[in-house]
Automatic annotation (TrEMBL):
Family: Belongs to the Nth/MutY family.
Cofactor note: Binds 1 [4Fe-4S] cluster.
Keyword Transit peptide: no
Superkingdom: Bacteria
Catalytic activity: Hydrolyzes free adenine bases from 7,8-dihydro-8-oxoguanine:adenine mismatched double-stranded DNA, leaving an apurinic site
The EC number(s) this enzyme carries: 3.2.2.31
One Pfam entry name: HhH-GPD
Protein name: Adenine DNA glycosylase
CC cofactor: [4Fe-4S] cluster
Function description: Adenine glycosylase active on G-A mispairs. MutY also corrects error-prone DNA synthesis past GO lesions which are due to the oxidatively damaged form of guanine: 7,8-dihydro-8-oxoguanine (8-oxo-dGTP).
GO biological process: base-excision repair; mismatch repair
Recorded GO MF terms: 4 iron, 4 sulfur cluster binding; 8-oxo-7,8-dihydroguanine DNA N-glycosylase activity; adenine/guanine mispair binding; metal ion binding; oxidized purine DNA binding; purine-specific mismatch base pair DNA N-glycosylase activity
Amino acid sequence: MHITKILTSWYSDNKRELPWRNTKNPYFIWLSEIILQQTQVKQGLPYYKAFIKQYPTVFHLAKASEEAVLKLWQGLGYYSRARNLHATAKFIAHELNGEFPKDYNGLIKLKGVGDYTASAIASICYNEATAVVDGNVFRVLSRFYGIQTPINSTPGKKEFKERAQQIIDKKNPAEFNQAIMEFGAVQCKPNSPDCSICPLQLKCFAFHTGKIKDLPQKIKAAKPIKRHLNYIVYMSDSHTTVLEKRVGKGIWQNLYQFPLIESDKELQPKEFKKQLNVNHKSIVLFNENPIVHKLSHQHLYTKFWIVKVTSLSENAIPINKINDFATPILIKNFIDDFNF
């Protein structure tokens, strides 16, 4: 039996029941695909349900403020996805009268929509035979065919797309695309897949050559940058604090954080006081050992300094309003742990 039929047959027997699999509404499919980029289903599912409840149509999402969207997204990471999601919702609502483009070529022009997402929407909603290629698909194709071209290289992306396109079920591309992604997520897992029950085992290159752990291949990423962050958590006598909105194109754009001192090395209390240069009543270090927050290209070594002061500027916010602001998960975890 050909790999195409094996995968679709496996999918019909083993697919998980997920809410976006019961619709061809492009808004729901688009929303699910954006949320599931860089995110596992078990983490993304509650966010999908929350977004559908809060914003049941693209018009509702378009009317929301960016801060409200970022707040609902809080904890998912890769916040550019949320900003692009909101921008695209406004474009579709205002410029396209709420109608999504109805083919791959139109979809891929939308902000935040790349080849994978455009292919998913086009095939699931409009039955266009364009193959999806995500991390799960890379893994299945690499292991089955023995493709050793790095998946994060330009030649690799081209080769895998072409191979996926060759085997897609042209009569039912939606079913096939979902089948190969589900197969990679559930059966052909990154670590310790159960090859004894795999329906592709008979012709699988990786299984017969013992290269399951070696495939797919990837070009090694550069070593992450190490940064030292010192957040100043002001607390005034009138129970106010300070949050600042991050601007620019760096990480966490448009999210809120406590005032920050970034240093070349881990600061000790005396060194921190020298850099603070603010009249204060007391300074207490919340966490003696830095909290290490790992991002794809940088590791953040973070300390939170509780600085008590008599009063703060007019920009201060009441401490009991602190959870109204969209913050990075690093800041949100501190707020929860500190229990203002």
